[in-house]
Amino acid sequence: AAEGQPNAFTPELDRLAAQGARFDNLFANASVCSPSRAALITGRYPTETGIAPDGNVYVIQKPTDPGLTPGLATWPQVLQQARYRTVLVGKWHIGHGRESDGPLAHGYGHFAGWLQNGRVSRDPTLQVDGQPKTFAGEFTSDVLADLAMDYMRKSRPQPFAVSVHFWAPHANHDVPADFTLPYQDRTWLPLKEEDLEPWRDMDLVIPNPEFPNLDLPRVRRMMREYYASVHSVDRNVGRIMRFLAEEGLAGNTIVIFTSDQGYNMAHHGLWHKGNGWWITTDRKDPAGVYPHTRSNLFDNSIRTPGIVRWPGAVRPGTRVPELVSFVDWFPTLLDMAGLNVPDGLSLRGKSCLPLLRREPAEPPEGVFAQHCSLRSWRSPEWKLVRDFRNSGRDELYHVREDPFEKTNLIGEDNPMINAVRADLDKRLRQTMAAIRDPMLDDGQQQC
Length: 447
Prior knowledge:
Blueprint: H1 11-18, E1 21-27, H2 33-42, H3 75-81, E2 85-91, E3 110-114, E4 125-128, E5 131-134, H4 140-155, E6 160-165, H5 193-196, H6 216-246, E7 255-258, E8 264-265, E9 270-272, E10 275-278, E11 293-295, H7 299-302, E12 303-304, E13 306-309, E14 318-325, H8 329-336, H9 353-356, E15 367-371, E16 374-378, E17 383-387, E18 395-397, H10 415-434
Parallel strand pairs: 1-14, 2-3, 2-6
Antiparallel strand pairs: 1-12, 1-13, 3-4, 4-5, 7-13, 8-9, 9-10, 10-11, 15-16, 16-17, 17-18
């Protein structure tokens, strides 16, 4: 939601947050799509899900890339077994090379979307219950909302669990055949005029305009399009909420909003996420340390929005300041549905329901995240990032005092820093050992 974001305009999400609870510190366990989605749906860390069998945590790109391990439990499966009608609308991106990789093999009874990427903001072609369908002249976010509402309408009176995975605000890979871009660059266009209009004359606030060689014209153009794309999601969240009210479903439907990772928009001189690209004039690292991309686990890449609206159970205006992460969603969703974790199933997270109700609970001690050869442990006050395949690239940030992670303290030599670094490193390695993270064996490849 728009709180603390001077360039954003998200009235529907702000309204949703006011009606329920807002997570202040919700983190993905990876900083790119596929592994973070895998953690969310399985309650396990990415290297435990089959997405990164060699520990090199990255996004699925080719049909030969492994998908989720067959037989690995997911929360849609548990809900489906409890007689929920489970539906996925939109982006899957956790495997597409084999039949066993698709959403229907992992607990969803119906699917309308893309197995990999959406690619376009207008004229999308989707699989709809097994058949390709092109929605010519229609905007992607609107199409996905329409499909989700149609599935909910058809589900009654059976209880439903509908996942709506908007493609936006990912930047597009393609544009419609009848649309000509006025430049040669990645884009979020075309978008509806009502989504673009608020940013046409806005005096955008650049996160760190002093960053060396920052390409300010490109930053401003990208920011306008990105926030307009966010608005397309916000607008359709509003459409879905009005549908629930009109259908008499708003009072007994839990609504959860989050995203699969965060985003950099000129933060740290980057745009994109954990595989961020330099947004400098020469598209290179001014310090000459990193290649054309900057693998990272910055908070901008792993912190996500989190809103839960649950009338009668979660008090409107609730704030959840504790650290929670995607592995906590599986036990939380089952707890909400009044279901037990199946016998013999090991989950890494714990239910957030006591936190949402502001009941006494022991919060997680920290958040563990993975990307490429990076591993991080984040406490409420500090964050350590270790690069297990590239020496000299470890990072330590005092995030409570330095929330934008501008000052890397890894090389500081004083008793307090040494103690913090040792403690975080111990927690990081204990977690890696517990999940048998292959990166502890320290491979030789570079990401």
